[in-house]
Specification:
By secondary structure, the chain is of the alpha/beta class. It is 41% helix and 19% strand. The chain has a five-stranded parallel sheet, with helices on both faces. The protein has a five-stranded antiparallel sheet with strand order 10-9-8-13-14. Helix 3 packs across helix 10 and helix 4 packs across helix 5.
Amino acid sequence: MAKVNKVVLAYSGGLDTSVIIPWLKEHYDGCEVIACCADVGQGDELNVVHDKALASGASKVYIADLKEEFLKEYVWPTLKAGAIYEDKYLLGTSFARPVIAKKLVEIAKKEGADAIAHGATGKGNDQVRFELTVKALAPNMKIIAPWREWDLDSRSAELEYAKKHNIPISTGAKTYSMDRNIWHLSHEGADLEDPANEPHDSMFLISKAPKDAPDKPEYVTVDFEKGAPVAVNGEKLGAVELLTKLNEIGARNGVGITDLCENRLVGMKSRGVYENPGGAILYYAHRELEYLCLDRMTYHFKQHVAIRYGELVYDGMWFCQLREALAAFVDSTQQTVTGTVKLKLYKGSIISAGSKSPYSLYSKEYVTFEHDDVYNQADATGFINLFGLPLKVRALMQEKNK
């Protein structure tokens, strides 16, 4: 192994990253390992994580509260873009990785570390997301990915290694591989590895199953300013408080559950079930407001941008030039996306219930079926003649050449 004196490890407190600490010290000449646990709203008991990292052999532990930065600088820009991966996935894990990796780089530079390590496997997308962020922010930093180096190829092998090195590990087996943050909870593995299997209602840890949601609809309003959410039911809230409230509202009504067989960046398909109650509400409400406030050409072009933006976020290219350029375009479109959207939530569904904005482009005066003094319907004749001229010329040519 290359000589490494100090490593900053993305630490979660789970089996993989707990085992990685002694493994790094053993295979990199007793290097110092600093654990960094990023709090993006996963709900871990952080004091336990801190003590567990020290007990596993870390020399120091950082607990970084990144929830507000995560929402304001990563989630909100993606929401404003309307970016959704493959029409379903609201990118919950994808945009959490760059904010975590950015913090790893900051700590590595502060501590004078030689390398950054992570516990992502060689089959998944996260290895790419972590490492591309490091390359973008610290191009000369060494990256260590134990899953691509070690011979611990199973959970039982990791448990045996942990026992041998006196690493405190919870032996309770989880049914699914899960990733959680304030934005979402994902489930993969076990019976979900067969796409023909319907998800069990018992899987849901945040949301009610839609059939168990209340029999009475619940209404919610969301206020936006320049595309960013700022209030729920008329109450101004900070980013963390706002999403927490929407998560609670959405979860009790069973909204935001998504089942997707997606295309991973590394070339394989994987099946995941996502719980995204607050996020589903925000995406729906934001789109409703854009229907009012964006003109046809801008909205349609922005739909194309959303697809590419979502791919870039999914692929770990948060800090690439194209995403930054697209974000600048999106911000320019959001200057008038201000207003209030009302939604009706009922047993897993989200239904539009009205929206308003001081910048609305909707004009009852023009669109009314009643008498009006602003629109001359006779003007449509010339418009249709010119708009349809290419069709007419082509048809005349075809008749001529029969």
